[in-house]
Amino acid sequence: MARRDYSPFGPDAQRAVESGLTAAEWYHTEVPRKVMKELMQRSDQPAIRDTIILYGGMILLAGIGIALWPSWWSAPFWLAYGVLYGSASDSRWHECGHGTAFRTPWMNNLVYEIASFMIMRNSATWRWSHARHHSETYFVGRDPEIAVMRPPELAKLILNFFGIIDVIRFFPTLIRNAIGGPTAEERTFVPQSEWGKVQRVAIVHLSIYVATIGLALWQGSILPLMVVGLPRMYGAWHHVMTGLLQHGGLADNVVDHRLNSRTVYMNPISRFIYWNMNYHVEHHMFPMVPYHALPRLHEVIKNDLPPPNRSIAEAFAEMWPAIKRQVLNEDYFLKRDLPPTAKPYREDFHQYVPSMTRPAAAE
Amino acid sequence: MPWIDACATDDIEEEDLIRFDHGSQTFAVYHSPEGEFYATEGLCTHENVHLCDGLVMGHLVECPKHNGQFDYRTGEAMRPPVCVNLKTFPVKVEGGRVFIEVA
Q1: Which residues have CB under 8 Å from A48's CB, separation 6+?
Q2: Does any CB of chain B come closer than 8 Å to the CB of residue A99?
Q3: Distances (CA, A) of A232 to A86, A132, A161, A237, B8
Q4: Cβ distance B5 to B12 under 8 Å?
């Protein structure tokens, strides 16, 4: 098979449309309407509680870090603050972008805007990129949020644990957005009616960074950047760790989330930071279900899903060797066994995926 | 325009919807919290997903795929990623049945 081309203007993107892949219907586990209605119900209370803990924790940790600055005794507080800033903001961006975290729309929108700034994503652009990610999850050339492109570049994956690749990409795009609105690639998934908003958001974000850098220069200290900006790097590791597990090593160009997404049982702290997105097959199959109901959804549908990994370590032990194999054989992916209670994978859903039916590719 | 018998009033719980197909057309029929009935086209204007699997909250229906929202009384698109309004259809209730005036 030819090398994958992830450009939205390339042959893989064109093939995905022409083959009917982009119009195909995704597999869903059957859930009674009454049960699903109950699972979809929105509530403000869990997200208000979690948001108070999150922002309260950030203020406390940053306050101690500033008080102890420049002593090395401040380091553990910055590291903890960084994870809340540079990793928890990823999940808040995600859930509030779906509009499912809070019942009240303005609360979703407010936390979404704050989280978008912290995770260095244009809130207008990324709302649309994520819609595409759900429509066409891991369709080569179509999904703009593929974290592990094949063949994987391991050095880049590792560098991104410190946000290096993301930040290097972010600032040139931010400046381009602030000057001229969305880039040509972004215009393939952001509707024209939103282009002005992309530019306005970029101007606001850029202004905050310029003011923070100016304050740092005026004070002759990086302390302002320890609070705003740099935590996106020194605290990124947790969201990169959990984010890679979402789809890493699994199939692309399929329409069954059991083949391209991974559910992992995690410790309570990681689940708080990640807002239960460790139930990732469940989230992709039913994006209407709020984060706080995902454990219940998991109990309802788990007999139709591959067994979840029992821990982050176990999931990495499964995923990382698969990613390394993809360096030499980009068609390779993990095809996990389903329990006897599950409906089997439908090969006829995946007639556009040669590697699905080639034994050497999937093991 | 013909009035089509879509369903019984008690086929739809309050604050919920069902799918109704007629010929080549698909509709969503809603039962509001106030006990009123409404009908819209059945597919989301964003990416042709059936709204019947979505969530009704008050007078909003949320698409099950991308969480876009419409006011099902007017069809107005209320939350991205939906930008295009839903088409709505007149509804009447007679003898415990819900009728839609199909264009």
Answers
A1: A102, A107
A2: yes
A3: 4, 24, 10, 9, 55
A4: no
CA distance A90 to A116: 8
Question: Min CA distance, A31 vs chain B (Å)?
Answer: 10
Asked if the model's pLDDT at residue B87 lies above 80, the reply is yes
Alpha-helix residue ranges (DSSP H) falling in A41-88: 45-68, 75-83
B80 and A CB contact within 8 Å: yes
Q: Minimum mean pLDDT among A13-27, A105-119, A244-258, B44-58: which range?
A: A13-27
Q: Where are the domains of chain B?
A: 3-101
Under CATH, to which class is B3-101 assigned? mainly beta
What's the confidence (pLDDT) of residue B80? 86
Quickly state the pLDDT bin for A359 (edges 50, 70, 90).
very low
Residues of chain A contacting B53 with CB distance shorter than 8 Å: 36
Q: Is A288 at the interface with chain B, CB within 8 A?
A: yes
What is the DSSP secondary structure assignment for residue A350, as one 8-state letter? Answer: G
pLDDT in tens, A184-222: 999 988 989 899 999 999 999 999 999 999 999 999 999
Rounded mean pLDDT of chain A? 93
Q: Which residues of chain B have a CB within 8 Å of the CB of A131?
A: 46, 66, 80-81
Q: Can you give the pLDDT at residue A189?
A: 86
A154 CB within 8 Å of a chain B CB? no
Residues in chain B: 103
B43 lies within 8 A of chain A by CB: no
